[in-house]
Amino acid sequence: MSPLVGVLALLAITVCLATVVAVGVGAWSLEAPGPTAAFELSADGDRSSITIEHVAGESVDVEALSVTIAINGTELTEQPPVPFVGASGFDGSPGGPFNREADPEWTAGERASVSVAETNSPTPETDDSITVSLDVDGRRIAELETTVR
């Protein structure tokens, strides 16, 4: 009877360990993380422009990028659909890699900019706080904050 109990105990332990390993492997994410890069944000209240400079790190595929802009904690009604040329809520065409006609790879040293139209809400004014979130394929790669000058 002892050998039978021993075999059953070993079988139960093996099944438990296999379950733990299967759950652990299932929890691993095999998705590649978003690009690692550093950015600087600036904003000009006179022109309602927001500029983001890619200062270092890996290049960013602008076609996979989503940009969310908030002023004093309130998101703009119209967000920039990067890349674009002429979009509702924005004046003119964006500068740099946010422009549909530009190279879609945003590399270190390049600046991207948008000008918020008066038809968008809220509009940036001097001393407002601006937050810009950059996401690639749904993964946040940067959250930047500055004060409008």
UniProtKB/TrEMBL annotation:
Stretches with biased composition (Polar residues): 116-132
Region (Disordered): 78-134
Lineage: Archaea, Methanobacteriati, Methanobacteriota, Stenosarchaea group, Halobacteria
InterPro entries membership: Pilin_N_archaeal (IPR012859)
Domain Archaeal Type IV pilin N-terminal intervals: 2-73
Protein name as annotated: Type IV pilin N-terminal domain-containing protein
Source organism per UniProt: Natrinema longum
Pfam name, any one: Pilin_N
